[in-house]
Structure formats: C-alpha cells, structure tokens
Design a protein that fits this description.
heterodimer, A: 364 residues, alpha/beta, two-stranded antiparallel sheet, 57% helix, 9% strand, B: 369 residues, DNA Polymerase III, Chain A, domain 2, eight-stranded antiparallel β-sheet, elongated
Chain lengths: 364, 369
C-alpha cells in the first residue's frame, strides 16, 4: 500500500510526507493509534518509500513508493533484508533485551542493499525497562540513514525516556476502533446480561462465563491461524532442535497474540463502561450534584449537553438500563477497576483470578 | 550432483566455513552449507547474512550440481568416518547420500536456489598482499577491540588504505593498538572502513603464514580472498560497521620524554606474576623506574603484594606509573620481537609501547593512590 492509498485527510500522514519531501526525516518516530495493524501498514509504507527503486519524487526526494518494484514487493512479503521487525514474542508478550540487542547489532552494521535501514518495533509499550534502557543510546543517536519506528496503541504506557527521544505522530482520533461482527455480538450479549441482574452472585458468574467463553474462542482461533503459519507445518523434516525451537516460538507467539486480543476485548468493555458513565452523568444531574465533588461540576455541565454522538455504542439499549441503577461515582470507579484489571493482566497474575476479582468488583 | 572427495579435503572445507553458522537463526537455510561441484572442485559456502565464508577444495566431480545440507550434521558424519574416500551424491529432491567403505548415510537438504546469493562487488577497489603480513597486523590489533555495545564503531578493526600505507587500528577507549605497513596502493583503491569483530575472529582463525590475500571492498562490504600455495582458496565476505571511526591520531602522544628498552619475555612474565596479586578493587600494577632498574609492584589489601625487579637501561629521573596489567600483557602476548620500548612522559600521561617495526600501542595510566 502506498501513501496515496491511505486516507490522505490524516494530519499526521501529511506531516510525515512533508518531512519526506523536505528530506528532514527524524531518526526515531513513535506512531500511536487505535490498532497495531494500521500502524504497521503506515510503517511499512514509510519503509517502502525510503527503499523504493522507482519512487514518486518531489524536488528530487522520494515522497511515496511505487508499490510495484522488487523492493516494495519484498517489503510487503516481510522479506526485505534492510527492514527489521521486532515484536513481543515471549510468553508474557514482552519484547526481551536479547531481541533489542540483536536489533542494535544489525542497525550498527551497514545495509545489505538499499540506502536506508528501517527498524520497526511493534507494541513498544511491551518493552520492559531493561530492554528500553539498553536501547536508549541507539534510539537517541542511530547511525546515519537509519530510521527507527516505534508503534504503540498505548502511548501512556511507554517509558518517558523512550517517548522523549522520538518524534510523536498520532494516527488515532480518540475513538474506539470499529468492532468486528463477533465483538459487536459479544458486547451486545454481555451488556444485555449485565443490565438484567443487580447484585446476585449467580448473575455475576454468568457474566464471567460469557467473558471466559469469548476468551476461550479467541484462543482457539488464534491457535489455529498461527499453527497454520508456523514453519513446523512446512519443514517437518528439519533438525530436532530446530523443531523444538519452532515449537517453543509457536507457543510463545500464540500466548502473546492471545494476550493482545484479551487486552483488546477488555478495551471494548472499557469503552462500554465509559458509555455507562456518560449516561449516568446525563440522566441524573440532580442525584449527582449531591454525590460528586465540586471539582466535577464543570464536567457535569458539559455532560448535561451531551449528544448521543459522544457515545461509542449508542445502539445498545442496555447501557441506559445499567446507567439508571448506578451513580456517576460508581461508574467512574468501574473505569478504574477495569484499568487496574488491564494492569494486572499486563503483569504476570493468574488470569482467571484477576478476571473474577475484576468482574465481582464492578458496580452494575 | 555426484562426486568423490578425500576425507581430509572435505573436513578442511567444512572447518573453514562452519563457524559462521549461528545456532539461533530464523531462516532454516542458514544452518545449511551450500555445496557446489564444478570442474575438479567442490565449493562449500556458509553464511549468517553478516559474514559469508566460501571455501573451495579438490574433488573428483562426476556430475556437477549444487545443493545445501545441514552443516553440523554433515560435519559430524564425515569427521567420524573410518574410510579416507567419500562418495557424495545428491538427488533431485536434495537428499544427500554419503558412502564411504561400509558406511552409508542419507541427509535431507534444501534446494540451493533458496540459499542467500553471494554479495557482488561492482567497484574495483582492491589490494593484494601476503597472508603473513595481514595476519601479523590483525594479531597485533585485534586484542584491543572494544566489546562495549554503546559505542558500536569501536567493535571492529578500522582499516585505512592511503598514502602507500595500510593502517589497522583497534581501540576500546582505554588503549589503542595501531599497525601500519607500507604497501603499494593504487589511487583508486584508497579508502577506509571498519570490519566487525566477528569477521576479525574468523580472519585470525583462517589466515596462514603462506600465500596471498586479495582484499576488496565497497561501500557496504569487504571481502578477503585467501589463496594458499596449493591453489585452494577461502573467501570471506563481510558487512561493514556503519559510522565514522573517532580521530585516533589525537590520542597518540606526539613527543615523549623517556624511552626505555625492555626484554619482552622478561617483562611479560614479571607482569603475569604480579597480576596474580591484583584484585577487582585494586587492579593496577605500579612500574617504578629508577636508575637502571624497573620495579613492578602490585598491592591489594585483601590478597597480598608482589614485587618484581628488572635490570633496565634507564638514565632519567625517578618515575612511577600504574597500569592495568591486562592492558600491558595483551600487546606483549601478541608481539614476537625480543625487544620492546616503553615511552613515557609523566605518571598521568598515556604510555606508549613500541617495537622496531610498524607497531604502536597507547595505554592510559591509572591514578596512583
């Protein structure tokens, strides 16, 4: 995909193209946005433009790729020797120090065939402090003609020292990513169920059940798609230790991918709870006057004039029913509980326990 | 592909190339060796994408062709074979059969087309020199290569070709080793580049005392073609380190006050013994120069102390200077001359080690406490 095929209205894309046009590309970029896939596409397009054999030129400088030449095609097929990808691969979905060291080594060597070396670090929020610290010096001053692109969906979780060394470009627009059909259906079911029950323990475990079943389905589909792509399927006659390593890599990547999807699913839930919160603000200005602190007053004033357009899922009727039952403070606490839950799961806690505690705490 | 080869020849070839095959690779083909049979030679190639080594050995080729085989496995088998003649045959499905006396093996390989192609050199920048010369130069500098990843340009040997001189430099910021040899270099072959430590290790291993080296280089890579007298050859192609090497000339003292000749062996052994009495905390040895004598002392409270006396030809004022013993032992180990010279200015200025020849070593002193 070339820059011209991407939505041209995005200001960040225009900024990026303008720096290409002026030959003033930064050495490090932090791309943030709603979904890693689209950020990867942008990073890949940037890499293509830099290494394209017949680029679209403006003032003699490449501003877009042709998307047809050999270099572009190899980048598309993940097969270019001067484009390096680093993504969280270990079981706990972390980018390891070893991965970063390896990246630093190849960046310090001269390129294979093209002029630019491009390194893309996917989900840089999963870089532990050790890896980040090892990387700081290279990020601050990479060798000539190298571009480091860091991608993240959660810029607030990226270390300050990393952020300050990059040019930040945001490709998100502050709204949730569009849901796919399965997620929409699941959220519908979940919210419907949540709106029915009040405080019964049984009801709460029913909710947990829908969540766990969805997660299990996610894991199965990830397992299927990743196993099919693994070299284990293609080279069954390879050496024993190589097979073992692939096996290990496969389980690690399944786990990593599952964690990403789990975080995404909880993210959807987060957006829905935000809807609930917004609705509580609108529906009960009188009650909330008493219940909230004076500092929230301006917020309430804004909320009073809220349009349905601010809601992420206006079509869900259950949102309103839940919102009628709880106070804005409780709704706000829900958001904090979910944030805490995400943080627990990002660490190494037992999944079932964390989810159970999280769900039981929610005010619904 | 079908050929007969002597056990000695194939082992030589595999030993030359198999070191670059790394244990952790993402591409399965990188753990294989490329076998190409042509004329009366078998060419073996292995690569990790940064360094490529190709070695050609004699063989009786019945049917030319190419294929790749897992190198560790092939080497394991041929090393243990009892017979000295080996028949190698590779079929269309890249299955490699090995026959030797009573033994028969079959290894599954991969197609030769999948093997990364050898980088091409378009520009004609090259020099030819004897293996002995370049071996000596590499040996006299490689020990000073830095291993600090934060200054990656220092993780290799800097080679400069200009003004009828080939210069090699290695430094880690605390010491610097430099060798320059007079060599005829054509105008068009002038230039400089940094060869990574991994390649330097391979050179150290593969360079012999006889034969010639053809060194070629381009913007991003360099190649060393080692030819011995018997006609077999090894080609090492390497990527280069990005970046510009620091201006090393400015750390070499222009003028020194004292020049002390020393017997290398004697000095080296005294240092080695004194080093035993150093510890992590106090890792320095003190060299005290007095009239016609040198005293080497090491002292660490928790270990003990050492004192070595050497008779030297010294007429200057009394002077004491401390060094990390390892930084003195390394160059003395690499040299072969009987006599070395230490040149000093004062106790806080860098010391210089020289020989009667094109070698220079600068080492920073340690503060005397």
């Amino acid at each position: 995909m070339a820059f011209k095929d991407l939505s041209a209205t995005q200001q960040s894309l225009q900024l990026l193209q303008r720096s290409l046009e002026r030959g003033r590309l930064a050495h490090g970029y932090l791309f943030s946005g709603n979904e890693l896939e689209s950020l990867e596409t942008i990073a890949r397009t940037l890499a293509k433009t830099l290494n394209c054999q017949e680029p679209v030129r403006k003032n003699g400088l490449a501003v877009d790729c042709c998307d047809r030449c050999l270099a572009c095609q190899r980048i598309e097929r993940w097969n270019h020797p001067d484009l390096h990808w680093v993504r969280p691969e270990s079981k706990s979905r972390i980018i390891t120090v070893a991965q970063m060291r390896e990246l630093m080594r190849v960046i310090q060597l001269k390129p294979n065939e093209s002029r630019f070396k491009v390194a893309v670090i996917v989900a840089v929020d999963r870089l532990r402090p050790e890896g980040a610290n090892a990387f700081l010096k290279t990020l601050e001053e990479p060798p000539a003609d190298s571009v480091l692109v860091l991608l993240t969906t959660e810029p607030q979780r990226v270390l300050e020292t990393i952020v300050s060394r990059c040019s930040r470009l945001s490709f998100g627009n502050g709204s949730p990513r569009p849901l796919d059909a399965a997620q929409r259906e699941w959220l519908g079911d979940f919210s419907e169920l949540a709106s029915q029950e009040r405080k019964s323990l049984m009801g709460r475990y029913c909710l947990l059940d829908t969540l766990l079943r969805r997660l299990a389905a996610l894991r199965t589909s990830i397992e299927e798609s990743l196993s099919a792509r693994s070299p284990l399927q293609q080279h069954q006659d390879a050496e024993k230790n190589l097979l073992d390593r692939w096996e290990e890599e496969l389980t690690a990547s399944i786990e990593a991918e599952y964690r990403r999807h789990r975080a995404e699913l909880l993210g959807v839930l987060h957006w829905w709870l935000r809807d609930v919160w917004l609705r509580t603000l609108r529906q009960k200005p009188n009650i909330s006057d008493r219940a909230t602190s004076p500092a929230d007053k301006p917020l309430l004033a804004i909320a009073a004039g809220l349009e349905a357009s601010l809601l992420s899922f206006p079509e869900l009727a259950a949102t309103g029913r839940v919102a009628q039952r709880i106070s804005p403070i409780e709704a706000l606490e829900n958001l904090q509980i979910l944030d805490q839950l995400q943080r627990w799961l990002g660490g190494n806690v037992q999944e079932a326990l964390a989810l159970e505690v999280g769900l039981l705490k929610l005010h619904l | 592909m079908n050929l007969t080869i002597s056990k000695e020849q194939i082992i030589n070839g595999l030993q030359a190339v198999q070191n670059v095959v790394s244990t952790r690779t993402t591409l399965p083909i990188l753990s294989n060796v490329l076998l190409r049979a042509e004329g009366d030679r078998l060419e073996l190639t292995a690569t990790d994408l940064d360094v490529t080594i190709a070695c050609s050995v004699e063989a009786k080729v019945k049917k030319p062709g190419a294929s790749t085989v897992p190198v560790k496995r092939l080497f394991g088998i041929v090393r243990e074979l009892s017979n000295s003649e080996i028949d190698l045959e590779v079929d269309d499905k890249n299955a490699c059969s090995i026959r030797s006396g009573p033994s028969f093996y079959k290894i599954n390989g991969l197609s030769a087309d999948e093997f990364p192609p050898m980088p091409k050199f378009i520009e004609d920048k090259k020099i030819v020199l004897s293996q002995e010369t370049i071996r000596g130069m590499v040996k006299k500098t490689s020990f000073a290569i830095s291993t600090d990843e934060s200054r990656y340009v220092l993780n290799g040997i800097f080679i400069s070709l200009k003004d009828h001189k080939m210069t090699m430099v290695a430094t880690d910021g605390r010491r610097l080793a430099l060798v320059d040899e007079e060599i005829d270099i054509e105008e068009k072959s002038h230039g400089e580049f940094i060869v990574p430590a991994k390649t330097v290790n391979e050179l150290n291993r593969l360079l012999q005392d006889k034969g010639e080296v053809e060194l070629r280089y381009a913007e991003n890579q360099a190649s060393f073609k080692l030819k011995d007298e018997k006609g077999s050859s090894i080609l090492i192609v390497t990527k280069l380190i990005e970046g510009s090497y620091p201006n090393y000339r400015q750390v070499i003292p222009a003028e020194t006050k004292e020049r002390v000749p020393l017997v290398r062996e004697e000095f080296l052994h005294a240092l080695r013994r004194a080093e035993i009495m150093t510890s992590e905390k106090s890792n320095s040895v003190k060299l005290s120069f007095g009239k016609n004598k040198l005293e080497i002392t090491a002292n660490s409270p928790e270990v003990g102390e050492a004192k070595e006396s050497l008779a030297v030809n010294y007429k200057g004022p009394e002077m004491a200077i401390a060094f990390n013993p390892k930084y003195m032992i390394d160059p003395l180990n690499a040299l072969t001359n009987d006599e070395v010279f230490i040149e000093l200015i004062d106790e806080l200025s860098p010391g210089v080690l020289k020989i009667n020849g094109p070698f220079l070593y600068v080492v920073m002193p340690m503060r005397l406490s």
